[in-house]
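Here is an idea for our session: we take a single protein and study its fold together. To get us started, please write out a protein record for me. Start from the sequence, derive the backbone structure tokens from it, and show both lines together. Go ahead whenever you are ready, and we will take it from there:
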Amino acid sequence: MKNRIRVGVLRETKNPPDKRVAIPPVTGLKILEKYPDVSIFIQPSDIRCFTDSEYRDQGYFLTEDLRECDILIGVKEVNIPTLIPNKTYLFFSHTAKQQAHNRELLQQVIKRNITLIDYEYLTNLSGQRLVAFGHWAGVVGAYKALRARGMRTDFFDLPPARTCLDMNEMYRHLKKITLKPIKILITGGGRVAMGAMQTIRVLNLKEVDPEEFLTTEYDEPVVCRIDPDKYVERIDGSDFDLMHFYDHPEMYQSTFKKFSKVTDLYIACHYWDPKAPRFLTPEDYKEDDFRISVVADVSCDIDGPLPSTLRPSTIASSFYGYDRFSEEEAIPFVDKRNVTVMAVDNLPGELPRDSSIDFGEALADNVYEALFGDDPEGILERATIAKEGKLTKHFAYLQDYLEGKDAVTV
């Protein structure tokens, strides 16, 4: 390890603004204690969830100029004019899936000889992600689903999550509401779904299994979470196998429609492969016994499994309506025949302090040893998209995208 490693914490520049940060003040102090040859410099920000004064009070040096830093750490994509040549950057670049709007970003990373490490691809030897915000997407997404229910029915009023200092304040508001007898469905079994269940459990609702959910009406609100074996089946009639489904999603068909007949509020927290079957069709929404009134699409798959997810929504304007019959967007909460949709694609940004602390701790526990010392497991190598002015071997498939020769996705 070199004598001194200078780490710069970037001000977020993506629009709409993101208040999160990868190194919160307390986490940074732990890093400095563990790695005495590391220095941390903070770029001032008037939108960050932790104020400049909070960093100053902990003894950090704030500076606009990070050119002397070796490693620059942000959260979302970095504004291209601010990229400093010959540095190592860590952030979510959203380039590895050939996103058209970020092609120039990757081109400039290559041109400026930047080493780009993407959080999304920091994994252990088993392929499990080491850092992610997914849990917080579920936490906030479920709260927003309940908020939409209250706004739609006028039975209760929850403040926006973004106005809460942290999760504890958000949950204090949630504990004040009372739900009428409704059925809440959650799809998925990973971090996102578990985050949603954490929020729902604040209400101490009865949790029921899928068979009961489908066949029983209750005089109290209930919740059910289902895994893929409950909403898809093999086309050839063979028994469901989870790994086979992940490897060959095109060999499955949806069985989700039966849930649309008994569900009032649906929170989508699953991973969906474009080769997998769509959950519902527009025609399914038009049927007389279609019951879902609120869809909180935490997964936010556009042109994906749910036809009502027409576009992403925003933290500032989180809801829109879906006209089941015209298949077009409508004003939310006006016509009760429409489905209310929540499809915010940066939900953790509504609880930036909590999600930043969680994310920062995960980096400290799982990544910084490799970043500041040795990397025997290849954690950084697997997540490095560009280095020494070219794509790395793991991301060589992006060459046509980089050169503009591909048919890119948005």
In short: The mean pLDDT is 95. The CA atoms of residues 63 and 352 lie 22 Å apart.
